[in-house]
């Protein structure tokens, strides 16, 4: 039971890291980036102008780490829900 609690804490940390990485992508030196304009290259180019490459690299690495940590929480959640699934059978 303790291992699943640890997995849930890892998932919580993963979700926090995901929020931080979203912040790195959303807030640029030119102001807040409108994520709905990603399909238009010219609008994205203007939005990200002046943003250091370090911010984008850190955001990508944090995103990968976040998703890796989050999967453990989903595994723990599935295992916890399995006890209720067996009651329905």
What does this structure look like?
The protein has 89 residues and is mainly α. The protein has one domain. Helices cover 76% and strands 4% of the residues. It contains 3 helices and 2 strands; from the N terminus they run αββαα. It has helices at 2-26, 41-47, 53-88; strands at 27-28, 31-32. Strands 1-2 form a two-stranded antiparallel ribbon. The chain starts with a helix and ends with a helix.
Defining traits:
89 residues, mainly alpha, two-stranded antiparallel ribbon, 3 helices, elongated
Neighbour order of strands in the largest sheet: 1-2
Over all CA atoms, what is the radius of gyration? 18 Å
Q: Helical amount among residues, as a percent range? A: over 70%
Number of domains: 1
- The proportion of strand residues reads under 5%
Question: What topology emerges from the helices and strands here?
Answer:
Elements: H1 2-26, E1 27-28, E2 31-32, H2 41-47, H3 53-88
Antiparallel strand pairs: 1-2
């Amino acid at each position: 039971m303790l291992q699943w609690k640890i997995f849930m804490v890892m998932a919580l940390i993963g979700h926090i890291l995901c929020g931080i990485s979203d912040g790195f992508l959303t807030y640029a030196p030119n102001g807040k980036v409108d994520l709905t304009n990603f399909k238009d290259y010219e609008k994205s180019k203007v939005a990200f102008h002046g943003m250091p490459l370090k911010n984008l690299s850190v955001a990508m690495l944090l995103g990968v780490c976040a998703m890796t940590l989050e999967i453990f929480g989903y595994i723990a959640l599935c295992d916890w829900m399995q006890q209720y699934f067996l009651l329905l059978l």
